[in-house]
From TrEMBL:
Organism of origin: Ornithinibacillus halotolerans
Cellular-component GO terms for this entry: plasma membrane
Catalytic machinery residues: 82
Family, similarity comment: Belongs to the LTA synthase family.
Full protein name: Lipoteichoic acid synthase-like YqgS
Length: 411
């Protein structure tokens, strides 16, 4: 493995951006309400099933003048699924190629966003109606600097208000409000939804749209549960407005990882009206929605920036006007034009504005066309950087390298 000084040098030269974005500090002192949206993929946004919109609320949010919607935003998770997406978001480091870093490296030193925010006077907390030891969160959250975790014990859960993995999302948001209203501002509050989880079970009375019709029950069931989540988030927005929290907050909604695996490619190709799901299509299906909603901002738009979960920490800190120059991380501020120009999936695939690299092939990003060897050369040039970046991130975790650095904060 590498030593920290060489990693630091690499990050300074290759990853860190020059200057600040125009949005630096635009949300200074505001609450951050972060919704980790279970298993939602971008292909449902703006799409229909049986002639009905799948996500009417989120579709309106895409168009909202206070929202930035990122249409080329990729999840970068592996086996640790939700916990990997949390790890990426809080640390701007990659999760591990195997297993869940939340389980295997929960005792490491990190320099996570909750800790940084805590040093800036923020109260930091997670809301999620599951057992606190699931994914080792009871160990990992305090280590990442979270002040408190409202786990399943904070909620009234019974047979009527739960399905599948537990408390239904509408109940989850509603029951969270009484806690949210007592938090000292400013706060960073992460809400992790649960209902839109494989195998996408939902009571008939909670289904606002019909299931799809294909050979995959998983895909068929997916649409009504995605719609249910869309409605839950809409209700939550209304509750935030009613409670007077909305104006003092920015609201971020991010998909955590895919919901429909490649086992369902046949049904997926039917739904998307394609002959087959190519390796290119498979990579494009790893896009998850990212909404950054800044009440009163008025300048929101749809962004095509090639981006991923690794970018969340630098982006949020920049919006809040927090300098973090000494830190070591692998993402970029989404609103700063000076970006490294590629996003890496955890299996080594990567995406640039021109290319998609997957299983030793390169495709034209826009057309999906497979490139021959000559045309692919410019694409293959990224491979070395990509592997270097992943292995540096892994070295930090395997070697617990941050225990050797004082990032200048008080502990
Ligand atoms: C578990 C929930 C779902 O608490 O976050 O985890 P997943 O199976 O999606 O990784
Ligand atoms: Mn998940």
């Amino acid at each position: 493995g590498s030593e920290l000084p060489s990693i630091d040098e690499y990050v300074n030269n290759e990853i860190k951006q020059n200057g600040k974005s125009d949005l630096f500090g635009i949300a200074e002192g505001k609450n951050v309400i972060f919704i980790s949206a279970e298993s939602i993929q971008s292909f449902v946004i703006g799409n229909t099933v049986n002639g009905q919109e799948v996500t009417p609320f989120l579709n309106r949010l895409v168009e909202d003048e206070d929202t930035y919607y990122f249409e080329n935003f990729y999840h970068q998770t592996e086996q640790g699924k939700t916990s990997d997406s949390e790890f990426l978001t809080e640390n701007s480091l990659y999760p591990l190629p195997r297993g869940a870093v939340f389980y295997t490296h929960a005792q490491n030193d990190y320099r996570a966003m909750p800790e940084i925010l805590g040093n800036e006077g923020y109260y930091t907390t997670v809301f999620h109606a599951n057992n606190d030891s699931f994914y080792n969160r009871d160990q990992m959250y305090p280590n990442l600097g979270f002040d408190y975790y409202y786990d399943q014990d904070a909620y009234e859960v019974n047979e009527n208000n739960s399905i599948g993995w537990g408390l239904k999302d509408k109940q989850f948001f509603e029951q969270s409000m009484k806690y949210l209203q007592t938090l000292e501002e400013p706060y960073y509050a992460k809400f992790i939804t649960l209902t839109n989880h494989f195998p996408f079970e939902l009571d008939v009375k909670d289904r606002s749209i019909d299931r799809y019709d294909s050979n995959s029950n998983t895909l068929n069931n997916y649409f009504p549960t995605v719609r249910y989540m869309d409605e839950s988030i809409e209700l939550f927005f209304n509750q935030l407005k009613d409670a007077g929290i909305y104006e003092d907050s920015i609201i971020i909604i991010m998909g955590d990882h895919y919901g429909i695996s490649s086992n369902h490619n046949k049904a997926m190709s039917q739904y998307l009206d394609k002959e087959e799901i190519t390796p290119y299509d498979h990579v494009q299906l790893q896009r998850v929605p990212l909404f950054i909603h800044i009440p009163g901002h008025g300048e929101g738009e749809v962004k095509s920036t090639i981006s991923g979960q690794i970018d969340m920490k630098p982006t949020i800190l920049s919006l809040l006007g927090i300098e973090n120059d000494e830190d070591i991380y692998f993402g970029n501020d989404l609103f700063n034009e000076d970006r490294k120009g590629y996003v890496i999936l955890r299996n080594g695939d990567y995406i640039t504005k021109d290319y998609i690299y997957t299983s030793d092939n390169c495709y034209n990003f826009t057309t999906g066309e497979l490139l021959d060897e000559t045309d692919a050369n410019a694409c293959f040039e990224f491979t070395e950087k990509v592997n270097q970046e992943l292995s540096y991130s892994d070295d930090i975790i395997y070697g617990d390298l941050f225990r050797f650095v004082d990032f200048g904060e008080e502990k």
